[in-house]
Design goal:
Largest sheet: 5 strands, parallel
Mean pLDDT: 75
Order of helices and strands: HHEEHHHHHEEEEHEHEEHEEEHEHHEHEH
Radius of gyration: 28 Å
Number of strands: 15
Shape: extended
Structural class: alpha/beta
Strand order of the largest sheet: 10-9-13-14-15
Helix content: 25-40%
C-alpha cells in the first residue's frame, strides 16, 4: 500500500526498512486510524490527516534526527512539494518572533458554514508557496486577520485561529484541520550537524557501553526463574546481579578564554555524561594540558593535581575524552614556557603525548565548527597528533567518537 512512500523516504535520506513498512500496514489493518463518526457513534470514519502523519512517523522513523527529512518526504509524497526551497522556508519559520504567536484575545471559532466560505488553496504545494510569500512580506505582528501569520483570525497561517486548511505555526491543536503542523520546527536541532542538547548527547554516548553483572544478586532474573519453575513444576526464584556499564571515562575540559562562548554546550555534555556513566572522572585545564589539572575552578591554584599523579591514578582502561576548541597560540602547544599563565617546564605537546601513550583510547571533542579547523594551526597539529581522532560536538561527531572508543 505504501511502497511509493517507502522509496520516497529513502530518496530523502530516511533509513527505513521493510520491517517499518510492515509495521505501518499492520497498524492500519488493526484499525488504528479509524474513529467513531462525530454524528453517528455506530459508524466509523477515517482519522484526520494529522493523525495519519503521526502514525506514519511513529512507524517509519526510529531516530529523531530524521524528522526534518521525513517532513520533506511526506510533503513530496502527498502533494509533490518538490519545487520549493524547503530548507530556506524552514529557517524563515524558525525565525518567526515568538510574540507573533502569543494569543492576546480569545481563539477564533467559526460555524461550519463560515468555514466553508473561506478560501482553500487546493494543494499543499500552493499552500506552502502562499506561506513563503507571507513570510517575505510580513514585517510585524498580526492578530485577528485573514492573511498574515498571526493568531486568533481566519488566516491559514499561525495559531489559535480557525481555517479549514492551513499551516499551524506554534500554538496547540484545536480543530485538527491543519494541513501542516510546524510547531516552531522543534526538531531542527536534532540534525547531525547541529549543536547538541543534553538528551541527544546522552543518547549518542550510549554507544560507549559495555555491560557486565557485578555486585550482589539483588535483581530478579525473570527468564531463568521461568525456566527453572517450568522444569521443576514449583516456583523457583533466581536472582542475579544488576547489569552495570563497566566502561570508565575520564574527561578533561578546557575552560576559560575562547571556551567561554561554549560554556552552555559543555554543561550539557557534562550533564549527559554524568547521567550515562557510573564511573566518570573529570578535570579542567586551560588551552593545553601541562603539568597539572584541577577539579574545582575556584581552587585551581590552591588544590591542583599533578598530571603525573593523574596518569598514575587512572589505569589505561579508562576512555579519555579531551573537550576543547584546541585554539591557542602555537607557543602554548610547542614551546617551554609557552603557557599564558605561568612558566611551564615542558611544552604542552609533550604532556599530550604522555596521555596518548598511557591510555588505550583517547579522543578530542571539539565544539568549533569543522570548516574552521584547517585555518587554526594548533587544531591541525593536535588533530594530527591524535591520529585524526578529533570529532565535532554534533550528534554525528559524538556517535563517531563513541563508536571508535567502544571498539
Amino acid at each position: 500500500m505504501f511502497i511509493k512512500l517507502f522509496y520516497t523516504l529513502r530518496t530523502y535520506g530516511v533509513p527505513v526498512s521493510t520491517r517499518e513498512l510492515l509495521d505501518l500496514n499492520a497498524a492500519l489493518e488493526q484499525g488504528l486510524m479509524m474513529q467513531p463518526h462525530p454524528e453517528d457513534p455506530a459508524l466509523t470514519t477515517f482519522a484526520s490527516r494529522e493523525d495519519m502523519y503521526r502514525l506514519i512517523r511513529l512507524c517509519m522513523v526510529k531516530d529523531e534526527r530524521h524528522f526534518d527529512k521525513f517532513d520533506r518526504a511526506m510533503a513530496d509524497y502527498f502533494e509533490g512539494v518538490d519545487s520549493l526551497d524547503m530548507d530556506e522556508l524552514l529557517a524563515k519559520l524558525t525565525d518567526v518572533p515568538k510574540e507573533w504567536l502569543d494569543l492576546k484575545l480569545d481563539p477564533k471559532n467559526l460555524t461550519d458554514e463560515q468555514r466553508r466560505l473561506l478560501k482553500k488553496y487546493g494543494s499543499l504545494e500552493e499552500l506552502m508557496k502562499a506561506l513563503e510569500e507571507r513570510l517575505k512580506e510580513q514585517k510585524e505582528r498580526h492578530q485577528g486577520g485573514s492573511k498574515w501569520v498571526g493568531t486568533g483570525g481566519t488566516s491559514p497561517f499561525g495559531a489559535y485561529g480557525d481555517h479549514p486548511e492551513g499551516v499551524r505555526v506554534g500554538g496547540e491543536s484545536r480543530k485538527r484541520s491543519a494541513a501542516k503542523v510546524w510547531e516552531q520546527r522543534k526538531y531542527r536541532n536534532l540534525d547531525d550537524d547541529s549543536q547538541l542538547g543534553t538528551r541527544q548527547i546522552q543518547m549518542a554516548l550510549r554507544n560507549l557501553r559495555q555491560f557486565a553483572r557485578t555486585g550482589s544478586a539483588d535483581e530478579l532474573d525473570i527468564h531463568e526463574t521461568i525456566k527453572r519453575t517450568a522444569k521443576k513444576g514449583v516456583l523457583d526464584i533466581h536472582m542475579q546481579a544488576e547489569r552495570r556499564n563497566r566502561v570508565k571515562v575520564l574527561m578533561l575540559f578546557d575552560v576559560g578564554g575562547s571556551m567561554d562562548i561554549h560554556v552552555e554546550a559543555l554543561e550539557k555534555l557534562f550533564s549527559a555524561a554524568k547521567n550515562e556513566f557510573k564511573t566518570l572522572e573529570f578535570f579542567y585545564f586551560h588551552n593545553c594540558l601541562y603539568d597539572y589539572v584541577w577539579k574545582d575552578n575556584n581552587r585551581r591554584h590552591s588544590a591542583p593535581m599533578p598530571t603525573f599523579e593523574l596518569l598514575n591514578k587512572y589505569g589505561r582502561e579508562y576512555r579519555v575524552i579531551f573537550v576543547g576548541d584546541a585554539s591557542m597560540s602555537p607557543y602554548e602547544l610547542m614551546t617551554v614556557g609557552g603557557s599564558v599563565e605561568y612558566m611551564n617546564n615542558e611544552a604542552g605537546i609533550v604532556w599530550l603525548k604522555r596521555v596518548l601513550a598511557h591510555f588505550d583510547k583517547v579522543a578530542w571533542l571539539n565544539p568549533e565548527t569543522p570548516t574552521y579547523w584547517q585555518y587554526t594551526q594548533t587544531i591541525v597539529e593536535i588533530k594530527k597528533l591524535f591520529d585524526n581522532k578529533m570529532y565535532p560536538m554534533t550528534l554525528h561527531g559524538v556517535e563517531d567518537m563513541t563508536n571508535y572508543m567502544a571498539r
